[in-house]
Amino acid sequence: MTPKDDSLAGVDHGRRNFLKSTGVVGVAASVISPSAEAQSGPAALGPGAVPVRLNVNGRQLDLMLEPRVTLLDALRMRADLTGNKRGCDRGACGACTMLVDGRPVYSCSTLAIAVQGKQIRNVDGLANGDTLHPVQAAFCEKDALMCGFCTPGFIMASVGLLEKHPNATAEQIRKGLDGNICRCGTFPRIFEAVSSVTGGQRA
């Protein structure tokens, strides 16, 4: 058995006393168990909710929104218009595409407060009662969807395209929908569906 080294015992004792005297133990304890103030986090900065008036699908919506709220969140969370989906949330996949004054926009990266006074349309407003919009009907007829998550964005982009080019060519369709992604790979059926709608009606 190795005899105890008195010099080492003295060094150990000195280290313990040093830690106590410098308050390191107290600091470590505060890191492990943060105060109630630290747990609650810093106070929120920035303006609170302000009145925002939106014209959506021909209907006026008066909402109280923080200026940072996107059009997608305003409609999904505050107006119960949940047709358009949140995909990438980065303005890259197109699942959230809506029409603002007839132009397709990524609603996940468009501030609601910035589109006041404009005509906003999302997929919830396309059908007329039980009658589907021609583009919606074409997507069903041509089986142009699989999981369906990207479909509302594709439909809105297609409606915007066909309103601008009623007899769109194959090249115009490809270009008009190049901002939308279908991860299931149904692009051929989607293009077929859109090309079957001419002059606002299915061929």
TrEMBL record:
Tell me which EC number(s) this protein carries.
1.3.7.9
What would you give as a GO molecular function for this chain, any one? oxidoreductase activity, acting on the aldehyde or oxo group of donors
Record Pfam families: Fer2 (PF00111), Fer2_2 (PF01799)
Q: Which SUPFAM superfamilies match?
A: 2Fe-2S ferredoxin-like (SSF54292), CO dehydrogenase ISP C-domain like (SSF47741)
Extract the InterPro entries matched here.
2Fe-2S-bd, 2Fe-2S-bd_dom_sf, 2Fe-2S_ferredoxin-like_sf, 2Fe-2S_ferredoxin-type, 2Fe2S_fd_BS, Aldehyde_Oxdr_Iron-Sulfur, Beta-grasp_dom_sf, TAT_signal
Q: Which residues form the 2Fe-2S ferredoxin-type domain?
A: 50-126
| Entry keyword annotation includes Iron-sulfur | yes
The protein's UniProt keywords, in alphabetical order, are: 2Fe-2S, Iron, Iron-sulfur, Metal-binding, Oxidoreductase
Note the Gene3D superfamilies from the entry.
3.10.20.30, [2Fe-2S]-binding domain
UniProt xrefs under PANTHER family: OXIDOREDUCTASE WITH IRON-SULFUR SUBUNIT, OXIDOREDUCTASE, IRON-SULPHUR BINDING SUBUNIT-RELATED-RELATED
Name recorded for this polypeptide: 4-hydroxybenzoyl-CoA reductase subunit gamma
> What is the protein's species of origin?
Luteitalea pratensis
Gene designation: hcrC_2
